[in-house]
Amino acid sequence: MRRVVLWVQRHVVNPLARPVAGRIGSYALLETFGRKTGRPVQNPIGDGLRGDTFWIVAERGRKAGYVRNMAANPRVRVKTHGRWRTGTAHLLDDDDPVKRQKTEKLNRLNAWVVRKVGTDLLSIRIDLDSE
Asked: The CATH number of 2-128 is which of 2.170.190.11, 3.40.720.10, 2.40.340.10, 2.30.110.10?
């Protein structure tokens, strides 16, 4: 089942969501830099913007490619509400991701999907640079 979910996300959901993520209020676009290539990699994610902090709950934890990229280089960009912002990602191994989804009032549909298909949830806090 996990392989099917990953295939659908990679080949159906992400290509369809990538062009509109960051323009629609409930979704954003995360840009990390490839840990081997250094090239920018963009992934659609739920919009977790809260002031100058951006929250993500990664459904595959440290196994997700974008999380491995952040571990190698924590400098990221996030496109939300039509504009790009830069910041520094922090992987929070000791945080409770389900509680984080609730306390930060993250997008309910996205949070539900992450909990249902997620195998190893991980909270990530991105401290956005001052504008």
From this structure: 2.30.110.10
pLDDT tens-place string over residues 24-60: 557 889 999 999 999 999 998 888 899 999 999 998 8
pLDDT at 22 over 50: no
Instruction: Count CA atoms closer than 13 A to 119's CA, side-chain side.
Output: 9
Q: In the block, which residue shows the tokens 């997700």?
A: 64
- pTM of the predicted protein model: 0.79
Contact 100, 58 (CB under 8 A): no
DSSP state of 119: S
